[in-house]
Amino acid sequence: MIAGFTRHFWWGLALALVSLAIGTAAMAGIFKGADTSVFRALAMTQATSAEPSIAAVEFITHLGDPGWRAGVMLVVLFALIYRHCWRSATVFLVTVGLSITGHSAAKEAFARPRPTLVPPLDHVDTYAYPSGHAAGAMVILLLGAMLLGGRKTMIAAVLLAGAIGVSRVSLGVHWPSDVIGGWLFGGGAALMGYAVARRVARPKERLS
Question: Given CA atoms 69, 170, 162, 96 in this order, what sign does their dihedral have?
Fold first, then answer.
């Protein structure tokens, strides 16, 4: 148990620190060329993209909106409580709260401007790095899957969080590095939260 805790926790911390390092590098312009190239390849506009395609991407991105994320959180919490995993439910709630606070603070600290290469297809009024949609979706979906499901559930969670992140670039509101940083931050938080949940769980709590 202790070895598993150490492994998950330190990997999670490493991912979170890499996320912050990427933010620092992005602000220094290190990723400017790659960011611009990938952004131009993925970004959609009203003039060049079919309306059904834009609608589909907007649907995916809305799955990462705060309201949808709150709904998923409630489902995970109710499932953990139904299994009498009270400590794990508490850790889940605290981890998500700290992650949201952390990536929101990082946005203010980096104060990275949003892309302006194309007209955005979503309304945004915050800074760019890291992507809140990517970070929030990753920590909630991945940690929920790690606490409740098996390997297939975790893969599905990562794929959905991945699609939500890519949609932010497609809608023209994030640089690719914003999304990568968000994924790493949220994934790191999920691993650390899972480590703590396993450590404090009572013997009868069955975590995947």
Answer: negative
Average pLDDT over residues 10-30: 96
Residue type at 191 in one-letter notation: L
- What angle in degrees, to the nearest 10, is found between the helix axes of 32-42 and 176-200? 100
Two tokens, residue 10: 């330190």
Over range 93-101, report the average pLDDT: 96
Q: pTM score, two decimals?
A: 0.92
What are 125's two structure tokens?
Answer: 């009024």
User: For residues 159 and 105, is the Cβ–Cβ distance under 8 A?
Assistant: no
> What sign results for the dihedral spanned by CA atoms 143, 144, 147, 148?
negative
**Among all chains, which residue has been given the structure tokens 């409580």?**
81
The CA distance from 198 to 208, in Å, is: 9
In whole angstroms, what is the distance from residue 176 CA to residue 26 CA? 10
Judge whether 27 and 112 are in contact, CB under 8 Å. Answer: yes
